[in-house]
């Protein structure tokens, strides 16, 4: 299917004029330059890749095309006509539709209401018709293979993967001239659903701007890619003729080996059991037992919706435990709240950093120091000097530049937000890390930093339980891997036997339980 898509894209591209042309786009916020003289073009029917580290300018380009940000200089043409949208509504009216990495769905509204915003269908008397809205949304969901999602469900009740699919479907359903996809598969364990949609869409001549840190996806879908670095477009290259090392070098300005050594496999360690789960049940978890030892990284692999999310949230005190036992450092633990999890020494990194992990309206240093307030306060007075020193220490630990600390965390790139969140968890003094997809939507450099932080943590006797949607990440990162299927452990794979095909087979229920 991917090969068909690439071939169709290439042939369509040769026969059509550019659907999008950007020339010399620049945007600055005071002294901070977000993008400088960025240029690229996308041909009709082409999926065009954008590659770059967090902070390279990708999000600014998305906001410019979506009418959220007005560039300071430069020219944009869409379908041969000048394109200068003053609002998201104007961008959509001109034919640009965007599916954002940080989802734009309104959690308090239903799926149907979100799909049909800003206009709701009306009845004969001119009033909004909930029935017509629901029926139209149900038809849309069915058309795009999402008929299992009920249109009356509030968006907040969906899993992150379901939210991502609804976000993408809403953008695609507007029949755009240009579709902008920002890390569209970051929460999807199986991207095949999206690839099939893109094959249909590009066959009609729609251009697609595809932003992803997953180079393998870019190569499968795109004939050409534009590399951004430090806010500038370095080069647009034919992907077939450029190796991964060269692309990485253009992205970061350094040889690949200088930034990826942290991805080497760890040496297994065998300390005492630090975190134990026995016959745990709750949410979609039916019966799970596992151990994590001191000095050990244990991975969890699963296809979407198999109970892994509830497993991690029970350990974080966010999902009620229906049955079974949890033991921390050999002692029974009742984890009925996030505060109880913190007291037990568990540090949790959730899947949705912007809604569950960070406080967007607060500064980055305040976000990091939140876990330190109890230790740095005496008689209700906060030791400000101690707070600043502790924050700087944790920032260095996660390779977060000190210049970001005074900025609101909402102004940082996703990768730097994730570093700050992990820094706060480490600052809490946690002895056991429970990490749900901690590298989702971050660049290769930030991934290397996170891997290094994890390895350093277990090197000092900590324990780590980590879930990832990227099986290759688990293969290279963990000491052993637990595979979850239908709320139970389908098997455990030791380091020496870890491979993506083995994990996929177990995750799909194709092998007998080990």
TrEMBL record:
<dbReference type="InterPro" id="IPR027417">
    <property type="entry name" value="P-loop_NTPase"/>
</dbReference>
<dbReference type="GO" id="GO:0005524">
    <property type="term" value="F:ATP binding"/>
</dbReference>
<keyword id="KW-0547">Nucleotide-binding</keyword>
<keyword id="KW-0813">Transport</keyword>
<keyword id="KW-0762">Sugar transport</keyword>
<dbReference type="InterPro" id="IPR050107">
    <property type="entry name" value="ABC_carbohydrate_import_ATPase"/>
</dbReference>
<feature type="domain" description="ABC transporter">
    <location>
        <begin position="20"/>
        <end position="255"/>
    </location>
</feature>
<keyword id="KW-1278">Translocase</keyword>
<keyword id="KW-0677">Repeat</keyword>
<feature type="domain" description="ABC transporter">
    <location>
        <begin position="268"/>
        <end position="511"/>
    </location>
</feature>
<keyword id="KW-0067">ATP-binding</keyword>
<dbReference type="InterPro" id="IPR003439">
    <property type="entry name" value="ABC_transporter-like_ATP-bd"/>
</dbReference>
<keyword id="KW-0472">Membrane</keyword>
<dbReference type="InterPro" id="IPR017871">
    <property type="entry name" value="ABC_transporter-like_CS"/>
</dbReference>
<dbReference type="Pfam" id="PF00005">
    <property type="entry name" value="ABC_tran"/>
</dbReference>
<protein>
    <submittedName>
        <fullName>Ribose transport system ATP-binding protein</fullName>
    </submittedName>
</protein>
<dbReference type="InterPro" id="IPR003593">
    <property type="entry name" value="AAA+_ATPase"/>
</dbReference>
<comment type="similarity">
    <text>Belongs to the ABC transporter superfamily.</text>
</comment>
<keyword id="KW-1003">Cell membrane</keyword>
């Amino acid at each position: 299917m991917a090969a068909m898509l690439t071939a169709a894209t290439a042939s369509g591209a040769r026969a059509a004029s550019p659907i999008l042309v950007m020339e010399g786009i620049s945007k600055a916020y005071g002294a901070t330059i977000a993008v400088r003289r960025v240029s690229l073009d996308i041909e009709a029917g082409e999926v065009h890749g954008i590659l770059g580290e967090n902070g390279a300018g990708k999000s600014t380009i998305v906001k410019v095309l979506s009418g959220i940000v007005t560039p300071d200089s430069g020219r944009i043409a869409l379908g041969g006509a000048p394109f200068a949208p003053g609002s998201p509504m104007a961008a959509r009216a001109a034919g640009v539709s965007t599916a954002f990495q940080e989802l734009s769905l309104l959690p308090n509204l239903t799926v149907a209401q979100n799909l049909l915003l800003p206009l709701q269908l009306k009845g004969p008397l001119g009033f909004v018709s909930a029935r017509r809205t629901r029926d139209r949304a149900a038809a849309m969901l069915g058309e795009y293979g999402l008929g299992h999602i009920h249109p009356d469900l509030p968006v907040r009740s969906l899993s992150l993967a379901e939210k991502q699919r609804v976000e993408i479907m809403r953008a695609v359903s507007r029949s755009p001239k240009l579709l902008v996809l920002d890390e569209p598969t970051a929460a999807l364990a199986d991207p095949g659903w999206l690839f099939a949609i893109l094959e249909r869409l590009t066959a009609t001549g729609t251009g697609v701007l595809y932003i992803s840190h997953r180079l393998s996806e870019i190569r499968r879908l795109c004939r050409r890619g534009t590399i951004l670095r430090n806010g500038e477009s370095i080069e647009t290259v034919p992907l077939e003729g450029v190796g991964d090392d060269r692309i990485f070098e253009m992205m970061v300005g350094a040889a690949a080996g200088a930034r990826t050594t942290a991805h080497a496999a760890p040496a297994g360690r065998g300390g005492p059991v630090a975190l134990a789960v026995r016959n745990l049940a709750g949410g979609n978890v039916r019966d799970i037992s596992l151990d994590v030892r001191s000095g050990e990284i244990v991975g969890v692999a699963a296809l979407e919706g198999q109970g892994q999310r509830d497993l991690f949230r029970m350990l974080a005190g966010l999902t009620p435990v229906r049955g079974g036992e949890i033991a921390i450092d050999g002692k029974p633990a009742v984890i009925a709240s996030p505060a109880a999890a913190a007291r037990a020494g568990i540090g949790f990194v959730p899947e949705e950093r912007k809604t569950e992990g960070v406080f967007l309206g607060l500064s980055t240093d305040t976000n990091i120091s939140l876990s330190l307030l109890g230790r740095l306060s005496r008689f209700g007075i906060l030791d400000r000097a101690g707070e600043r020193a502790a924050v700087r220490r944790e920032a260095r630990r996660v390779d977060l530049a000190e210049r970001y600390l005074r900025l609101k965390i909402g102004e940082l790139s996703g990768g730097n937000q994730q570093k700050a969140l992990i820094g706060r968890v480490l600052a809490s003094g946690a002895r056991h890390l429970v990490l749900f997809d901690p590298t989702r939507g971050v660049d290769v450099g930030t991934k290397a930093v996170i891997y290094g932080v994890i390895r350093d943590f277990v090197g000092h006797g900590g324990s780590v339980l980590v879930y990832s949607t990227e099986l290759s990440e688990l293969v290279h990162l963990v000491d052993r891997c637990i595979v979850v299927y239908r709320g139970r452990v389908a098997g455990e794979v030791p380091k020496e036997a870890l491979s993506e095909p083995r994990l996929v087979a177990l995750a799909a229920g194709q092998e007998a339980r080990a």
